[in-house]
Specification:
Layout: E1 13-20, E2 23-30, H1 31-38, H2 42-47, H3 50-61, E3 65-74, E4 77-86
Parallel strand pairs: 2-4
Antiparallel strand pairs: 1-2, 3-4
Amino acid sequence: MVHGEVEPVKDLRIGLRVITNSGEIALEFSGERAEKISGISAENAHSLPEHELVNYLEKKFVGKILKAECFSLKNDYLYAKKAELLEEG
């Protein structure tokens, strides 16, 4: 209402709970970063049933090593500027 008539834009946002050497933090990716790290486009993510998308993302991230360059939004909440999944060692 404030902005008048707008065209909706699909976006992909991923929030992860990450275990670090010093504790657990929240890490967020959005837009192109989220698409790149997840390997799925926003359009494809929005076309999947929710349980299929959750299963896909769990397989992609759970138990994996993630290297990220972030900035802090709050004490335990980070936003990723760059990120990559590393091969498991």
